[in-house]
Amino acid sequence: MDEIFTKEKLQIAIPILFGAIYFSAFKNGKQVCDRYFLNYFLYLLMSLAIYYYTMNEVNIDFKGLSIIVFVGLLGALFAFSMVENIVLKHVLWLVLIVCLGIISKRFYEQFNKEDIKDAMKKLMIILIICVFVALTFPHLLKPKLEIILLFSLLITILLRFIDYYFYDKKYSHVLTYVILFLFSSFIMYDTKRVVEFSKKCANGKTGYLDNVFDMFLNVIIMFENILKLGE
Question: CB within 8 A of 79, min separation 6: which ones?
């Protein structure tokens, strides 16, 4: 993976992606619905490229500032979900991606290159299967599913907290598999939602960033939990 995502290649790819997004997704300063899936994919690639570049090249020690950073992230996330101004929303999107990349740095430093390459291959297989299922069997992904998934995720987070502090991570692998299943379902559900959103898209209110950020979080959380299985 390092051979593909080198510093030099990302420094070239990121500006190119910015340009491609601007010329494909914007017209007269407003986002347009033309080439919806291409634009969605470009935004997702951009998110992952900035995240990976930040994680590898930006060195900021947040020791002692974790609570402040966490509160700041929550504030930025809340603002991101509320604002409509397209420029401000893009700024908040970049801030969120960069902050998550910096915070994730320590986590990825625990793993060697082979672990990361192996996890990447597994992630790609899971993503392909999830997208295929979402596009082939959209009728199975009912609106109530999202509520069930969110409730199940909250329960799983609580169980992971209990396992960490009271059972010395005895059930860590089991809970990791549960999280992978839940986020695979989130990916399928979000894929279906993007398809539906593209059909009712209105110029100026495309929902690109909201949809992309949801999928970005799904992918990153999936990747991190696949890595955890190899610990």
Answer: 92
